What we know:
Low-confidence stretches: none
CATH topology: Ribosomal Protein S5, domain 2
Strand order of the largest sheet: 1-2-4-3
Structural class: alpha+beta
Order of helices and strands: HEEEHEH
Mean pLDDT: 84
Distance between the termini: 28 Å
CATH class: Alpha Beta
Number of domains: 1
Amino acid sequence: MGIMKLGKKFRIRAKSDFAMLFDRPSRAADSVLTLLVKANTLGYSRYGIAISSRHGNAVKRNRVKRISRAAIRQVMASLPAGLDFMLVPRTGKSMSVEKIANSLTRLSAKVAARDDLT
């Protein structure tokens, strides 16, 4: 499983798509991140990252986003297709690519096994 290059088509960019994802998603969480998931009709998965200001100033928030994107690139090929993922990293935790990648893989499998994805 190689590292996948993620272009614009794999990112959730529209405000309406973000709003749709935050409106009654399937959720899974652990000590590293919360994952919000909804089905899409595109045939491939997309991702978004939501970082609250509780993570600190812009420099710290951007660091968490960079680490999260690196983790997504590592595991995107193994994620279930046809889903929109929103990553919400937990505050107060030391972030690493490995922690986020492991958490994302585990939580996405947990959510994909459910029947309530709409």
